[in-house]
Amino acid sequence: MNQPKGLTAGTHQYRMAVAALLCAGLATFNSLYTTQALMPRLVQEFSVSPSLAALTLSAATGALSLAVVPASVLSEKIGRGRMLVGSAILATVVGLMVPVATSISMLIVLRALQGVFIAGVPAVAMTWLSEEITPKDLTKAMGLYIAGTSVGGISGRLIPSVALTWVSWQTALVLSATFALLAAVLMAVLLPAQRNFTPHRVTFTGEFRAMLTHLRTLPLLLMFASAFLCMGVFVSLYNFVGFRLIHHFGLDDAHVGLLFLLYLFGTLSSTLAGRANSRFGHGITATAGSILMVIGLALTMGSIISLTIGLVIFTAAFFLVHSTASAAVGLLALTHRAEAASMYVFNYYMGSSILGWISSFIFDAFSWYGFTAWLMGWTTLLVGCCIATLILWPKPTR
Question: Transmembrane segments in this chain: where (predicted)?
Answer without folding.
Answer: 12-32, 52-71, 83-102, 108-129, 141-159, 171-191, 218-242, 254-272, 284-305, 311-334, 346-369, 375-393
